Amino acid sequence: LPPRLRRAALPPVAAAAGVSTAEAAADGEDCPALVGNVWRRAQQAAGCREVQNALEDAEGDWEREALVAELRGHAAEAARCPHANHVLQKAVECLPPRAVQFVVDELRRASIVQMAKHKYGCRVVQRLIEHCYEEQVEPMLDELLKDIGALSRHPYGNYVVQVVLQHGGEAHRRKIARSLRKELRVLGAEPTGCAVIAAALQYADADDQLQLTQALVKEPGLVVFMASVRHGDIAVTRLLSMLSGAELDTATSRLAGDLPSLRATKYGRQVASFLEGAGVVDKSATVAGA
Q1: Using one digit for the tens of pLDDT, what is the confidence trace for 156-188?
Q2: How far apart are the first and last CA of the chain?
Q3: CA pseudo-torsion sign 159, 269, 249, 217
Q4: Stated pTM of the model
């Protein structure tokens, strides 16, 4: 690699003395090259930023691939590392999809479902879904979506489901939408599930969105409950924006009947404000009755 990509930390003696990198170089201190040390540096707080900078500053993909090649055999461990996961994410963002196929393969061998539920691993899985070819991640998504309900309720897995709804292929988006309709009451009771429902109302195909809105309205008390739950307020306001006719009247009348309770919660107030802005309820009457 070119000398400009040979970024290194200060030698221990210079660092301890408070000497800057420039001063150390001027004094003849020998800075070790980044090449050959990518995996080690990627696991360090400062080193991971160094590797990310090198990936961004590289003159071409051949330079980036030379750096990322040192992560082969370490992708699963890197994805779970609080520092190296950022390097993997940057690699997926910077390199052509074919160059990060090894990341897909190694994460699958380590259990892609468990990776999607990991605090840091879920981020790498999301980047792969966003940047890789559909056919490249299709087997991975088939494994991930075997239990959509469980993944949607998971504190980290739900983010992966949302990204599939936004960037996945039609077949996978439809599979998620069908699963959500079957488990609406369970998912609508939790913030993570509400977040996935809100994403489906935004990114699912039009006919799936329609069926999802109809199913939500038919569930007794669910829309009112969701309105006061974190992320549920977003799902409910999107729902109201999409409904019309008798279904809209049904949903708004249920919510209007519970306005005092809505206004008593942080998220419910967002829905109440939406209803007021839409002219469904009178703000002064709502405040007086609260």
Answers
A1: 999 999 999 999 999 999 999 999 999 999 999
A2: 68
A3: positive
A4: 0.85
CA distance 100 to 121: 15
Phi first, then psi: give them for residue 83, nearest 5 degrees: -110, -50
Six token digits for residue 209: 């969105």
- Rounded Cα–Cα distance for residues 100 and 125 (Å): 12
Determine the Cα–Cα distance for residues 281 and 252; give it in Å rounded to an integer.
9
DSSP class of residue 117 equals T
R_g of the chain computed on alpha carbons: 25
Confidence of residue 14 (pLDDT cuts 50, 70, 90): very low
Q: Average the pLDDT over 114-136 and give the result.
A: 98
Residue 281: per-residue pLDDT: 66
Inter-residue contact 208 to 174 (CB < 8 Å): yes
Which residue has tokens 């993997």?
Answer: 88
What DSSP line would sit under 203-265, residue for residue?
Answer: HS-HHHHHHHHHHHHHSTTHHHHHTTSTTHHHHHHHHHHH--HHHHHHHHHHHHTTHHHHTTS
> Is the separation of the CB atoms in 251 and 281 below 8 Å?
no
Place of tokens 């002219």: 279
Cα 70 from Cα 61, distance rounded (Å): 15
Torsions phi, psi for 46 (to 5 deg): -75, -35
Answer left, alpha or beta for residue 229, where phi above 0 means left and psi between -120 and 50 means alpha.
beta
Distance CA 69, CA 101 (A): 11
118 backbone dihedrals φ, ψ, rounded to 5°? -90, 145
